[in-house]
Design brief:
homotetramer, mainly alpha
């Protein structure tokens, strides 16, 4: 049976994937694409690791915790980069990444406590 | 700018991915796995096509509509198989697949109308 | 039992994924990123559909043929865009996409004949 | 410019994905599916982490090394489980996983040396 926390985590991971995909697409349409390169690169990595993590959590994989540690790291890096840019899509992506970092940390903490 | 309909669609696609992953995992733990084989196989395909579709929609890809047609087909097949089984995870997965089929059809209809 | 043709197809799909990922990464490092935007966008879609197709083929999914038709379409579009650019990574990607289109068409033709 | 080692690694990761997908599909068709459950579960995780790793390597991501460490761990677990079963697809999958573990370790070692 899946807990509320898990359902919520999956929802947050998914929001982060779509925020990253949207951010990458809109960065490519900005006038100064050159300044957005690092942002686009992190968006790609972040969307991919969130996608993997959400599926490992959904399938209750014994490897979910390790993958989530890496997810936290990449989300944090993506947040830090996006937060530097004023574009609306970057700000929204930074927010989604931060929410993701927090939810992943919460989930990991709950696993450590209950085991 | 992303419409409410698109945000909602992405949310429904994601719910379907996690329902499929959960269903496949729990099918593997059932006493009569043998009877669940087709269900597990469809769960894998369905989760993958929904994942692809959600990312094509999020990135506003010109290929989103084609991919979505295939998504509808696989979700429908997954629904039909899951609906045959009484397990709670199968029933929930069938429901998520049906919701996905409906949302994808709505989205496609809205695209046809506005173009 | 998997045929030689299938093993070969999977290998070609994979080469195309890595060519697309590499091309997108190097496009982002070009001086005139602005001119490479369409190329980067197609690289993302192409890598994703090839990844899905290779897994549907590997798992012998009944949906492999439909997905492959979309794969051919996206690979063709990616080839046509990449072929316009003189960068080495674009030329290599165009070549990998063309090889992919040909291999997918061969595979589809072999399925139609043997059924 | 991509080295021979990197091209080879991507090829090996891909072979591992297809070996895992094939193994999971054929495990589901075995008479004693019940005995193959852990194998199927590991096949799913292993295919997914190899897919992520191959794309991070192809796009030259700064996060490739961390992801690869997790890839080694999951490939090793998948190898150990597959190696217990006499089915041809399990033996082939165990072999592909081992090859993957070795190639990833080589690649990581080469990164540490050159930096």
């Amino acid at each position: 049976m899946k807990s509320e926390k898990t359902n919520n985590l999956e929802h947050i991971l998914i929001k982060c994937i779509t925020a990253c995909e949207t951010c990458a697409t809109l960065c490519l349409q900005e006038d100064h694409v050159k300044m957005m390169v690092k942002c686009i690169q992190l968006d790609r990595d972040c969307a991919d690791i969130c996608a993997l993590t959400s599926r490992f959590v959904a399938r209750n994989s014994p490897h979910a915790q390790h993958v989530m540690r890496e997810c936290i790291e990449i989300c944090q890096a993506c947040h830090d980069e996006c937060a530097k840019h004023e574009h609306d899509h970057c700000q929204k992506c930074a927010e989604a990444c931060q929410e993701c970092v927090d939810a992943c940390k919460d989930w990991l903490a709950s696993k450590t406590t209950t085991m």
